[in-house]
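Sample 1 of the test manifest.
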Amino acid sequence: MSIILVQVIVGGLLLGAIYALFSSGLTLVWGMMNIVNFAHGDFVMLGMYVAFVVWTLLGAGPLLGVPLAALVLATLGVVVYFGLIRDIMKGPMLAQILGTFGLALLLRYSVFWWFGANFLTLPENIVGGTFEILGLRLQASRLLAGGVALLVTLGLHVLLTRTSLGSKMLAVAEDSTAAQLMGIRPDTMQAIAWAIAAGATGVAGALIATFFYIVPTVGETLAIVAFVTVSLGGFGSVPGALVAGLLIGVIESLSAYLIGAVYKDIVVYSLFLSFLWFRPQGLMGKM
Amino acid sequence: MRRFLWPSVVLALVVAYPLLFSTPFQQRLGALVLLYAIAASAWNIVGGYAGQVSVGHVVFFGCGAYAAMGAYAHFGLSPLVGIPAGIFVSVAISAVIGVPTLRLSGHYFSMATIAVAELVRLIVTNTDYLGAAVGLSGPIVPRNVFDLSFISALPYYYLFLTILSLTLGITWWMANSRMGFYLRAIRDSERAARSLGAPASRTKLYAFMLSAGLTSVAGALYAMMFGFVDPESGLGILISVKILIMAALGGAGLLFGPLVGAAILVPLEEISNNLLGGKGAGLTFVVYGAIIVLIARFQPGGILPLLKRLWVTGGKAAEAAAAGGATRAP
């Protein structure tokens, strides 16, 4: 295998780790409340803009940008839960889809209106430069982003499976009435789930911002990536999202390298549709 | 006779609108309201009556638009010739994607339709025959009346009004036929409908195909009025979103819901674009988003049921609200 191919695959894995991170947020909310957040991609976009604002106002890099983005987005998640989700969850399907769709438009075009449609970027050397390991040329920013994303995703998995908070959340997901009888407040747990899910997208956004262009409409593509990842990994499964995210990252990078950059989205979307059509339970089943 | 009084007043106002409000801006606005009302009414068949929230209807809209412009650009024919071709292609596509996609329920169906729409947009953007990223243009100067290329919006207004009446007629007929009853049963509970012997898959597919064909007519009319189509204006996901929002704002699953929605949102968009210029484009969608969130949160059935409720409860307040609704309707 040529060194370039290895390079492409490693690049795909690093990107895939970020996909896995923001998709775990989507899958968590989905698995718990059976609601799809169509504004999910726009949450990631907001994380990117938070990182940009932190850099322009404070001159600080991802060290401050990432935690701040997590904080801002987690707050937004809680606000969205209490202001919108809690009520539309009980409503008809159309209201659920419209509610988060409207939210997506609201967020996307508020940013568009405020920052304009221009492509923004953080300075290229905000995290180190490029270096070589074993003949592979790696950008420090991508390595950092991929590594942090992987750690946070694993942390999320540990939180859900090994802590009492995680057990409570799973209990609510399983049967919220029964959970309530056990003294767990479904409302609080669901709000926490939204905070975690949105916080994770904030981290992912701030990380992507270190090497990706920042534009208000970026959320549209990212939302579809998250849908693909979640449908591939199984709706509601964080480990599934991790495996699927890495896989999508590699597939995307390989198809961009082998058949051309314009076709990478076509490949990913086709994959998504074939999974929805032929194996809607995903690769690894439900949590 | 009170029952027929207000509907006939509204109808007369709709017919006389471009004569009463005769500036080019007002006439164009009226035509656009009707055009979007056609698309939203077509969406309403599958999204409202059948309860399958498609976000991919722009595919059919684009089919119509590209067929109309393609007929001219490639064969030098009138864009009118493209309409049946567009309907044919749309119905074929809807059947092909409908069979696997309609098996998915709720959110899954919506996500799959988004992916289909984006996929089609990407493919068309990379297809030279369809003009790639530049798109296709219609006749620059109309050769004869069959090119349907007019400078004034007046002929478009009455053309669109005719097509809208046809669309609403078809919808009404469908809603009151056996199919309409099946669809409403499926929307309320697909499992229950199936267990009572309603052919759910087939009925949903027919609704999807009918809706696709009518949406493609709206796309063709749009392309004729604007004289061109490109991937953004013909296949952009925002068009799907606009269509479904109009239907849902007015009242999904109600005959006149989409028209009411279009009559509110199109002027909002046009006027805010006019007032705010280029910077308004973002703000318009901010307002759009806010309206949808509020509707989903507080009035998930749409505006029309609210108006009806006010109407039935009677009283002066209701009279005023209904009169407000009536003047807005054209």
